[in-house]
Structure formats: structure tokens, C-alpha cells
Amino acid sequence: MLDQSIILLLAAVFILQQFTRWEMLTAVLGVLVFVAIAILLPRLKGVTLLLTSAFVVGGVVLMLVQKADARMWWSAAGMNATIVTLFAFAPLFGIPVRLPKYVAALRRFYETKVQSGIVLYAGTQLLTQIMGAFINVGSISVVYHLAFVKPRPAGISKLLANALNRGFAGAIVWSPYFAAMALITSALGVRWSELLPYLIVLSLLSFLVSVGIDLRKLLDPEREVKKEAAPLSDQQGEPGESSVISEAEAEDRQGGGGFPIGLGIYLATAIAVILILESIVDLPMVLITCMTAVVVPLLWCLAQGQGSVYRQGLVNHMQVTLPSLKKEITLFLAAGFFSGSIGATGIGDSLPELLAGIPIPIWLSFSVMVVILMIISALIGLHPIVLVTIFATGIDPGAIQMSANDYAILLLGGWALSNPISPASAVNNLLAGLFKKPVFEMASPNYKYAACMAVLLLLFILVIRI
């Protein structure tokens, strides 16, 4: 319980600080971050422990070398408190998504409407993107079990792994409930509603790129879904998810097989509420998201007569979801402190001067550098939060001849394209378990996709600048 308590306390202090702007709460928040890291760090293992420790030690050394005062320490420590606050509330959005009648309707949709490899691939990627925007990594298991409601050939199974992976990457681009969006919008002071039209276009382009890359294999008649395949029992998923499907099946007594309208209305409502609140309330994006995450799912479940489902979801969030995020929370807090200490050195001011000597526009040289570094760091297993935090908090967009909105799109796109190729990403590790394949086998088919998206992202930035 201590882990959950310190996380919730940190989130509460951050929210209070955002509402009141009391200077003393910055110090309180900074102290809580160091306490949280001290409590959670011994729980970590392996590479995450090494990275987190390195960030803490590196940040401390940089601050000591600069002889930073207390205010600089607290400011650097609280750099990623935004993300912890989002983790504390955003998963509540997923409670109505898992209502048995919605899961049952989705299962029937897959059984009756998905008849070809292309439709299965495209539908799986789009559904993962939509569900992922609300239930994060949990969407992978849910959509996996829906896609394999019937036996699938080995060939299409490999392609479905790509669809799941890239669908989640598409959600990273635009979802207001992801750490990427919370960090970038808060650090750059941009409005999600202003970014959304561009991000939706970019996510749809990523979908087309994905389909285009795998189109030849999808058109191979031997890979069609209706061909016989290994039994579904051979494809075992994450414990607990199959039981959700079974419960849903028991409640599925409706005719038809269309996409559940109620679920579509809920998802549209959740997005619309945030868009409306952002336009009429002068509050940071993360606070609007957290308030919506508490109120909208509760009201929706009550309106559906499913108050018990909300209560159970809330208990599950406190007892299962939040403790499972302690690795990410500790890493993100340490990465925030490290990036804050780098920002205090003023290195971000000198970087544009170094790039000015390259005979191409500085925004282009910087964008190319960001994309390349994001890809390299992903391949070696470094979480994108590290580079994105450094870039978002340490570089002034004006110094590289970019608007804050264009810069935000660059960082979001870079984060999204790097996720499918990282052997350390939560998605690739979950897929490796579901498909019973090595994690590198899940990541490697996405190298071409990442390369194409890197070029497309740069072209996209060029077009929106015109």
C-alpha cells in the first residue's frame, strides 16, 4: 500500500499546485518525487533498475557541479510529475470499455463481419488504435483475443502482430491519455485541440503506410483468414483476458454483428468532453484529462446500470493497475529529474548554434537528428521518455525555427515510430508472450515501417510549415 499511497499523494500535490500556483508546493512536490524514487527504486530489477539509477546519479552529479540552489533541485525533480498524475487517473477511462455487452458485441463483429485477411488486418490495427487511446497497453490483449476468436493461419498471425503493434503506435500519436501527450503539451504549453487535426491525419497516414508495407502478403490467397489454421487453444493469451471474453460471450444474446454503437458513443463522448473543457476552462491539459477520467466513466456506468462494474474497476485500478505501473513511474520520475538537470546546464541553448553550421534549414537538421536519435535509442532499448523529456524541456522551439505546435508533432511522431521497433517496449514484450515468440521477432518486422514513417514524418512537418 505504501507504493500506491506515495503515488497518489504525489499526484494530489501536483494537482493542488496546478490549481493554486503556491510556490511552496513546488518544494513539497520535489521532496515527494525524491521520496517516491527512494521507495520504488528497490522494487526495480534488470535494465530498468540500471537506467533509473543512472538517471538519478547523473542528475545529482550535474546539479552538484552547477552548485544548483534548492529551487532548481525541486524544479528538476518535479519535471515529470505530470505523467505520474496521468497514470493515477487515466486508466479509469478503460472501465466502460470493458463492459461485457461491449466486449460481446465486438466479438460478434469479428465473427460475422471480418471475412478476409485485409479486412482483419485493417480492422485489428484500427481497433487497437481506438482502444489503445483509452486503455493503453491493455488494448493489446483485448484486441488479440477478439482477432483470434476464430483460428487464424500462421501467416496472418504474424501480420496481426504487426497490426497490433502499429495500431498502438498510432494511438500514441493523438491520444490525450498517454504519457507522451501529457509530457509534450505541458512542457511546450500547447493545446491538444489545436494539435488534434494534424495528429489524426498523421495517424491515418501511419495506418496507410502499415497496410502498404504488408499489402503483398495480405493479398496472398494462402494467407486469407478463411483458410484452416492451428486451433485457437494453441494461442494462449494473457491470464485473465480470456475470462473477460468468456463473460462477454455469456451475455451476447443480441442479433447482428455491427460495431457496438454504445461503445462508439462513449469513446466519442470522452473525447468531446476534453475538447469542450479545453476550450472553456483555463486549466492544463493533464488536469482536464484527469477530471474527465474520474467523472465520465462513472456517469456512463451509472447510466448503463453498471455501477458495480465501475466499483470493481476502481478496486482493480488501485490493487492491480497502479502497482503494475511502478516501474514506469520510477523510470519517468528519474528521467524527468535527469532531463531537468541537463536543462539547468543550458546545453539546449548551444545545440541550435552547433546545427547552424549545416547548410540546410536548422529546423530540418534538428528534426532529422531527433528522428535518428529516437530510432537508435529505441533499438538499444532506451525508453523514448528520456530523449523526449530532454528535447521538450531543454530546447526552445523558436531557437530551431519551429512553432511549438510543429515541434510537438515532431516529438509525438518520433515517440510513436520508435515504439514498435524497441525490444524493451511494453507492447513488444506483451506480444512476445501472447504469440510465444522472441521479442526481437515481434520488433524486427517493423523496421521498414519505422523507416518509412521517419521519412513521412519529416515530409509531414515540411507540408504543415508551408
Key terms:
mainly alpha, 466 residues
Could you explain how this protein is built, in words?
The chain is mainly alpha-helical and 466 residues long. It is built from 24 helices and no strands. Helices cover 76% and strands 0% of the residues. The chain is globular.
Would you summarize the structure shown here?
By secondary structure, this protein is mainly α. Helices cover 76% and strands 0% of the residues.
Lay out the secondary structure.
Blueprint: H1 2-20, H2 23-40, H3 46-65, H4 70-77, H5 81-89, H6 94-97, H7 100-113, H8 117-135, H9 138-147, H10 154-174, H11 179-188, H12 192-219, H13 241-251, H14 261-280, H15 285-303, H16 307-324, H17 326-345, H18 347-355, H19 362-379, H20 384-394, H21 404-418, H22 426-435, H23 439-443, H24 447-465
Helix pairs in contact: 1-2, 1-5, 2-4, 2-17, 3-17, 4-17, 5-11, 5-15, 5-17, 7-13, 8-9, 8-10, 8-12, 9-10, 10-12, 10-21, 10-22, 11-20, 11-21, 12-21, 12-24, 14-15, 15-16, 17-20, 19-21, 19-24, 20-21, 21-24
The helix content is over 70%
- SSE string, helices as H and strands as E: HHHHHHHHHHHHHHHHHHHHHHHH
How far apart are the termini?
53 Å
The value of Rg in angstroms is 22 Å
Average of pLDDT: 86
Quaternary state of this entry equals single chain
Poorly predicted runs are 223-255
Number of helices: 24
How would you sum up the global shape?
globular
Percentage beta strand: under 5%
Query: Main β-sheet, in a few words?
Result: none
- In total, the number of strands is 0
Structural class of the helices, strands and pairings?
Answer: mainly alpha
